[in-house]
Design brief:
The structure holds two protein chains of two kinds. By secondary structure, chain A is of the alpha/beta class. Chain A has a domain of 175 residues: P-loop containing nucleotide triphosphate hydrolases (Rossmann fold). Chain A has 17 helices and 20 strands. In chain A, α14 runs parallel beside α15. Classes of the chains: A alpha/beta, B mainly alpha. At the A-B interface, α10 and α11 of A face α9, α10 and α16 of B.
Chain lengths: 521, 364
């Protein structure tokens, strides 16, 4: 198991994985350009890069999902062809995907043996797996109840099942794709302990992430990818977050959000005892009360799926709810026939939704068509009583594109052909330039490259300084801490507590996010 | 970045699909021992070689424009309305009621009312499936196709038991009054001195169909409603975010769709038969699906595809009349065209996209 000696040679001679000159293109897009990398056994190797830098493509090639156009793969010093994922597993490679590939209504044990059964009858395989799982749990702190059904497990535990699946298939090399995206800080810490245990046992780990902090925290070496190329590989101890960010983006980046203290004015939004029951009859908001003042940003922290989405949707008129919501002191209708996005916009609420690809934009529509989504009834966009004034809309879009630095600056290009960051700029331009009293923002920088993150954060701060109220929902704690003037933490449909960013830290927020009430602490 | 330029998408793909369908049809014709070249000549001369041929081609095309537009409008709202057949049949009922109710003094007065009657009845026949989809989630494909059968049965009952003139053995209404007879293309073109076949059934409805194309284009791409319909059609969640009500869009889009299908009746019922007979639609509702698919749901595309299918119908009829190619084989040829232009779109698209990628790479 330990990669001690390969054919009697010392460790350093045979990297666990060596890629030489890997290239892959999808049509006109070159996703990977002549990539070479060596990962030594018994190390944790980070791969970092912006969205679309080619990280996932590279790992998909290594796991046999894609075939490289050129290049060679060496596993433990031996040239290996990986035409499919079965070959990758045979070569000792295990992959933990960002979106788990588990059968929800199977038990842990059944999921672990799925596809690796020893014979036609399940009982012997299940018994064998039970023994191995017990042993793995002790060795690596990978405790999961083998008889629990997947849908009963927390996200952190589900991820452990994915790791167990790989280890059960005797993986020596483990690839993790953005593993902490869905975890609380505490769960992420536990994951890192597991990874350290695995490293100590001589396993090789590749960690794909865009979070600089994790790279600094746990990796031994780190490779940076930019636009399909591997731009550099450095020892983690020789670098720092600013340096890595610069290597990723290709220019100096401001990681800290630069902002003056807030000057809160009158209360814009008041929410009192807001409840939402979803279509399955599950109560997703269990009595939320909060307020946001003019000129301040209220950040809602929490692990995704704890009711933040429902909060935004009720405020944005997408879902119905009960309780009271007041805007500028006036109550708004939450359940009536006219409780929709139009009525909210009429009351001065603008909404940058969490899911820009399914809500914020219509991907097949052009940029100019998207800049009026939700505001298409505005008389300013009408040429006469019947027809819309497309030329005027296009003109306005050109201005928005210029002010928000959308690239490429083409109003006729379909939304799907812009990068994530530029798509988000289109949404922001649309919502911010309506001059709303309250801006709802969900995950403003999800899937957005670092350069655009900086710009988007500046826009939000500028809007705050212009005296607008902003309700920010984000699963990125760093973003919440950097932007918010006050922070409310949500867990299981409730607000666990409110903190000021200067008086709290990720540890305390992490406890609140995990449902540990902060009031006692 | 788009893989293919737009012109390739809208022109090349239907063209290649058509060529493949024709090639296969030629093989079929060779298979039964006939000469495909002669068959093509016969079809072309029969369908567009004379004003008589044109008159029939355009007559069929008029039907297909209406039903094609009907399917296209529903497509924009991501509704698959395959109930054009029933909606057009009910449109016929509307036309018949209008034409038989009053002794119309002049066709120009009768026509707008008949158009309205056809549209209202067609829309009503689409309204119930639309309501069931919008409020109850019953799938529009299932309900609209069921309503085709209900519509046929309803008309059967009405024509046999209610609307049949006393003493007539024929399950059809009586002849419409002369004040409702629409001018044919012969009559219209004669006013500007162009000779056109007197016997062909193409009539003023063709011009209304062309106007409908323009109006649908304006509706879909130039109005708020069209914007909302397209928004809903591409992404329901984004539409809801924007405050567009799915219920409202489903209802409106289906009503417009049903009205367009119903309007076909002014061509075949009012313009040609001049009475309402059983099974007056003769499958044009289903051809509309192929027309909309081939026309990429764009009114201009629908117009061209409808002309093509009109050509196939008229040319096919000539073939059946003057050669030993049996009538059934003509249906096979039409079906091949529908299969390739409608259902097997990706078969042509994929290699073509690869070709364009290769070309672009070489340029780069």
């Amino acid at each position: 198991m330990t990669a001690g000696t390969q054919q009697g040679r010392p460790v350093a001679a045979a990297p666990a994985i060596e890629l030489k000159g890997i290239s892959k293109s999808f049509g006109p897009v070159q996703a990977n350009k002549d990539i070479s990398i060596r990962v030594m056994p018994g190390t944790i190797h980070g791969i970092i890069g912006e969205n679309g830098a080619g990280k996932s493509t590279l790992m998909s090639i290594l796991f046999g999902f894609y075939k490289a156009d050129a290049g060679e793969i060496f596993i433990n010093g031996q040239k290996t062809a990986i035409p499919d994922s079965q070959s990758a597993i045979r070569a000792g490679i295990g992959m933990v995907f960002q979106h788990f590939k588990l059968v929800q209504n199977f038990t842990v044990l059944e999921n672990v043996i799925l596809g690796a059964e020893d014979g036609a009858f399940l009982r012997p395989s299940l018994a064998k797996a039970r023994g191995i799982l017990k042993q793995l749990a002790e060795e690596y702190e990978l405790n999961v109840d083998p008889d629990a059904r997947i849908d009963e497990l927390s996200v952190g535990h589900q991820q452990r099942v994915e790791i167990l699946k790989a280890l059960y298939r005797q993986a020596d090399i483990l690839i993790l794709d953005e593993p902490t995206g869905v975890l609380t800080p505490a769960e992420a810490d536990h994951l890192f302990r597991i990874l350290e245990n695995l490293r100590a046992e001589g396993k090789t780990i590749i960690l794909i992430t865009h979070k600089l902090r994790e790279i600094m925290h746990i990796t031994d070496t780190v490779s940076v990818m930019r636009r399909g190329e591997m731009t550099s590989t450095v020892k983690t101890s020789d670098t720092n977050p600013e340096d890595l960010a610069e290597r990723m983006v290709g220019r100096k980046v401001l990681l800290r959000v630069d902002k003056a203290p807030a000057r809160p004015g009158k209360t814009i939004l008041e929410v009192d005892n807001l409840k939402v029951v979803d279509s399955d009859g599950v109560e997703r908001l269990k009595g939320i009360s909060l307020n946001v003042k003019a000129g301040e940003i209220l950040g809602i922290a929490g692990v995704s799926g704890n009711g933040q989405s429902q909060l935004l949707q009720v405020l944005g008129g997408i879902q119905h709810g009960t309780g009271t919501i007041r805007i500028n002191g006036q109550e708004i209708d939450l359940t009536g026939q006219h409780s929709d996005g139009q009525s909210r916009r009429a009351r001065g609420i603008a909404h940058v939704p969490e899911d820009r690809q399914h809500e914020g934009l219509i991907m097949e529509f052009t940029a100019w068509e998207n800049t009026i989504l939700g505001y298409h009834h505005d008389p300013a966009y009408q040429a006469n009583r019947l027809l819309m004034n497309n030329a005027a809309i296009k003109d306005e879009t050109r201005g928005k594109i210029e002010r928000f630095d959308v690239r490429p600056p083409d109003p006729n290009l379909a939304a799907k052909n812009f990068s994530g960051g530029n798509q988000q700029k289109i949404v922001l331009a649309r919502e911010i330039e309506r001059d709303p009293d309250l801006l709802l923002v969900g995950q403003p920088t999800r899937g957005v490259d670092i350069g655009a993150i900086e710009f988007i954060h500046q826009q939000l701060i500028a809007l705050r300084d212009a005296g607008k109220a902003i309700l920010l929902v984000s699963v990125e704690l760093e973003e919440i801490l950097g932007l918010s003037d006050r922070i409310a933490v949500m867990f299981d449909g409730r607000i666990m507590g409110e903190r000021l960013p200067e008086n709290t830290d990720e540890k305390e927020l992490g406890l609140l996010m995990a449902g540990v009430s902060g009031e006692a602490a | 970045m788009e893989v293919m330029p737009k012109w390739a998408d809208v022109v090349l793909i239907p063209l290649f699909s058509l060529l493949i369908a024709f090639a296969l049809s030629a093989l079929v014709i060779i298979g039964i021992g006939e000469d495909p070249i002669a068959a093509v000549k016969m079809m072309v001369s029969g369908a567009v070689g004379s004003t008589y041929g044109w008159g029939y081609t355009l007559y069929y095309a008029t039907n297909f424009i209406f039903t094609g537009l009907a399917v296209a409008v529903a497509f924009h709202a991501r509704m698959f309305n395959i109930g054009g057949e029933g909606q057009a049949a009910l449109g016929g009922l509307g036309v018949a009621l209008v034409c038989l109710s009053v002794d119309w003094p002049h066709w120009a007065i009768a026509l707008p009312v008949a158009v309205a009657g056809a549209a209202v009845f067609g829309a009503l026949w689409a309204a119930l499936p639309a309501y069931l989809q919008a409020k109850r989630g019953s799938h529009i494909v299932i309900t609209t196709i069921m309503f085709n059968f209900i519509g046929a049965a309803l008309l059967n009952y009405l024509l046999v038991n209610v609307m049949r003139p006393a003493g007539s053995m024929d399950p059809a209404t009586g002849k419409f009054p002369p004040g409702t007879f629409l001018p044919t293309l012969h009559d219209i073109l004669a006013t500007i001195g162009i000779p056109f076949s007197k016997a062909a059934p193409a009539n003023v409805s063709f011009l209304i169909a062309v106007a409908a194309c323009v109006l649908v284009w304006l509706l879909i791409w130039r109005t708020r409603l069209g914007y909302a319909i397209r928004a809903y059609g591409h992404s329901e969640s984004a539409a809801v975010y924007a405050g567009i009500s799915p219920t409202r869009i489903i209802m409106i889009a289906m009503l417009i769709s049903g009205a367009l299908a119903g309007m076909m009746a002014i061509n075949n019922v009012m313009g040609e038969a001049e009475r309402l007979v059983l099974n007056s639609v003769e499958g044009a509702g289903f051809i509309g699906i192929a027309v909309a698919l081939m026309g990429r749901s764009h009114p201009f595309g629908v117009f061209l595809a409808a002309i093509l299918f009109g050509f196939l119908y008229q040319g096919g009829a000539e073939l059946a009349l003057f050669t030993d190619i049996p009538r059934e084989l003509i249906v096979v040829i039409q079906a091949l065209v529908i299969l390739f232009t409608g259902a097997l779109d990706n078969m042509v698209r994929m290699p073509l996209e690869k070709l364009f990628l290769a070309l672009r790479k070489r340029d780069a």
